[in-house]
Structure formats: C-alpha cells, structure tokens
Amino acid sequence: MKTKHYLYTLTLACMSLGSTSCTDILDVEPLNSFSDEAIWSDLALSETYLNAQYVNLWAETMKGTRFAHFTDEVYQKHTYGSENVTQGLLNCDTYSIGWDETMWDPWGTYYGYIKSINLFLERIDEVPGDEEWKNWQKGQALFLRAWNYHMLYSLYGRVPLIDHTFGLNDQFEESRADMDDVAAFIVKDCDDAASLLPDVYPDNSDFGRATKGAALALKSRVLLYQASPLFGTPSPEKWQAAADAAHAVFDLNIYHLQDINTSNVVTDPKTVSDEYGALFLDPENPEVIFEKLYDPQYGAGENMSYLYQAPCGIGNGFQGWGNFNPTQEIADFFQNSDGSDFVPQAEYWAAAGDMPDAWKGREPRFYAAFILDGDMWGYGDGRREVEVFRPGESGVTAGRDSDQGEYYWNASNTGYSMRKFLDPNYNSAGTTMHTTPWFFIRLSEIYLNYAECQIQLGNIEGAEGAREYINKVRRRVGLPEIQASDDIWDAYYYERQAELVFEGQRWFDLRRWKQMEECYSHPVTGIVIYKYADGHKQYYTGNTVSTRNFAGVAGAEAHYWLPVPRYELRRSPAIDAQPYE
Rounded to an integer, what distance in angstroms lies between the CA atom of residue 21 and that of residue 16? Predict the structure, then answer.
C-alpha cells in the first residue's frame, strides 16, 4: 500500500517547479529532472504530478479581484482591470476580468490546467502498482478536470470539450459544444470520479483530497446551473436531475452543519456571530465537502485575505490595502436577529461608545461579515478600536482607518471592511503565513441548491420540501423558521445570499437567474461617519461610491458571458465568437 502524504505539504514544492524532494521519496534526484518515463513508472511520482494540479485551484482568498465585486455585495477599491465587467467593456479583445492568474485570461488558464490533467489521465493506467491507489489518483484527476470545465462552463457556457492531449502535428479542429453537452461532459467526469473515490480516506494524511462527496457536490452545482434560465430552457426534468444530485450528497451521511450556541441570538447576536464566523477558520468543519488548504512550509498558494480585507490604519492586524469594501446594500440586506426585515434609514445618531441603531440587533451573519467602525480588531498588543469616522468639527482627529487618516489611500470607500474569512487570532505582524482554508463547496450550499430545485418543482412542504432545507440553514444561526405564509422564493433568495455572502456564488447566481441588469441598475453606496467633540457620531447612508454599466459595449445579452479571446479565434477558426460577434 502507498506511503501516505499530507496533500497540502506536497503540491508545488514536490513537483517540477522546484528541486525540493518529498520526504517519502528518499535519495532521488530532484523532480524537475525526472523524465516522463520515470513519472509514469511510479505511483509515488504520478501522485506528486497530481498534487501539483491541486495548486491550480485558485481560492477567492488568493485573488486581488473576487467574484463578489461583480455584484451588489462588494466594491473593489483597487480595480485591477475588473472594470471590464463592472463597466461593460468586455469584448474579444478585452477579455480580462482581473489581474490574477485565472482572472487575467480564464480561457487560456483553465485550458492549460486541463491539458496537464489530460496528460495524467492518458498515462495513469500504465503506471504499475496498487490498484486502489491508482484508482484514487484517477478519480481525483477526473474531479479536477470536471472542476476546471465547470469554471469554463460557468463563465463561457459553450466551450470545446478536449479530453486528450495534442501532438505537434495534430490538427486542431474543435468547436464549441452546446451547453447541454458541456454539462453532460462534466457530469460524466463527476460520476466517473465518484465511482473511483472513497467516501472518506482511511488515513487523515490524505486530508484535503477530492472525495466521492466532492464529485457528487460538484455535479449538484453544475446541474443546478444547467436547469437555470441562462444556460438554456429550464424543465422539470433538469430541476429533478439537479435535486437528485444534491440528495446523493445527503445520502452519503458524512456531512452535517456544525451546531453553534444560539440561545442568546436575540439579546446578544454578536457573540453568536463569533462562533459562526469561527466555522470558516476550521479546515475540519464537518460541513466542508471540498476546500483549499494553505501550507506555510511549501506554499500551495498564498492566502491574501489579510492584505486585501483588513482596515488600512496602522496597528497589528491592520495596514491592509482595503481592497474589498462591503456595500451599504449588503449591510442593509441582513435581517434583524428576530428574523424581521431590517428597515434602513438615511441618517443615524449614536452616543459616545455606542453603535447606531442600524447595527444593533442584527442577525449573527451580519456581524460575522463586517468589520464596523467602533469594533475591536487586531492581535495582542495591537488590538484596538476600528476608526472609520471623519472629524465632525474642528479639534476632532480623523479616525486612523478613515479616508482622512494616515493611510487614506487604502481606506474603505464604503465605510465597511470584510471580516468573514479573517482569523482574529492571527498575528499578521509575525512570520507565519495565514493558513485559514477556503471552502469551495460546503453543505449549506447543497442544502440551498436542493431547496431551489424543490421550489421549481413545486415541492414546498414536508421533510423533503424546500421549506425544510431553507430552515435547516436558518436554524443553525438561531433565526426563526420560515412559515407557510411566507413567500418561499423570497425566503430562499434571502437565505442564499446571507449564508453564502462574499463566497463568490452571487455573481454566478445573478447571471444564471438573468438578474444582472437589475443589479447594475442601482449605484453602489456606502456610509459616511462623523465624530464630534463630545464623542457622539452621525451616520449618513446613501453616498454613491460607484455606478455600473452592464450593457456596455456589446449589450446586456452578450455580457452575461465572457468573450472568447481574440488570440483563440485567430488560431482556431472553428471556434465562434458568439454572443460577441
């Protein structure tokens, strides 16, 4: 049987980009000098090749542009080319949606990853050794190919389906497959992966690898997309297939929502929020189905969340770039802790040391999402009060984290910073990198996927009805259950955004529901805070931070999809440019 590895201590350092060898492959030459034949003659070496493919999974916390910025959730202060989406500038010559690897050229980057996986799948069967180990490797590769195709499908819809490598003399005559064919290809890879992968690996040293649950959960997401209006014509058959795929994850009986103490949710929701927020810091959270792990020794990607999320003012845990600013729209969206709707106002007042009514008595996920003016933040001796306020009169010093403070150029434009995914016990002034994981897929999403399918199928009541699965998510944070008198779609819509906020799902949801034009018809706004000599503060909402243009150059219908890059159209004549040209 194979020697075990921790996935997150292998990855790139163990593969062809460096000369460090893995500890269980002793006394061998560096892997960057291994021949192809050596790699495909030893399952230990083929696994290190496979591990390198996990590095190509880009978590949102690695990126300077996140998908949440393309929605009403976040304003990205330093745009990094993201205005191609937010200002409608996309076309076949302007196809970048950010400066990070998978955002600069998603088409070329994801196909590059797929090429490496195709090579693995072509060669793995010839590697001698333990059949179970080989099947696990093959199953992981199929999952990773499905993952990369699901990203292409989500962004482009119709894409060429390439399941093999090309030789130097081969003719490339591929065209873009129909969207249902793309979905079917991904689903087959997920099914094949699920048939080869274990429910749970027998040794914790394989922690972080794709499992049967990950393959089935990805299938659930892809089929949900396929059933949605953007991807074709919805039908009961498509919604049922997506519902069945989600239920297959439940049937494994592996995952569950971690309970938190919600007994004081109405009187003390902030304390409940701390426990909820801590769930996103725990790689062994029992609802996690697939995640990105970071390792300080080998560097399987770098978690950049502190740099991009933390407030800008000086202090331990601060001096961030303030890149991701939650909007007033998402702040106003969250319900109160008793489950009632929050009613926003244009102006608030708070006495010294108090917070405005706008921020009192909100549900736990509100406090888990935001760093607010007046919150305590930072590590150790650097812990202090966050100061976003401007001086309201002469003699009052501007807040250190404000747009009139010492680091004003990185101050939040909206008045809010993003707390979710940040570990309050992380010493950002130390020498250890931030290793909080990123959850690609978790059980809450699959519950909500299933609920949406059941709504579309008209199955609202009962233990398998939509209401129960929405309530499973609400109960975990102590919110009252939705009732038969409540509008089921409104309840679902709220729960999906509140539970998955900032996780990158909303852009794909708004696109597949074809609601981007409505989203971009409203400006992005924030809050402005003034502090006075007696310590009281005035809060003004509704200040416009940005306006967005969805129709842009090519028109709204085109901008629901990313354009195929011009370079691809020139070298691949059979690939069309629709809906852009």
Answer: 10
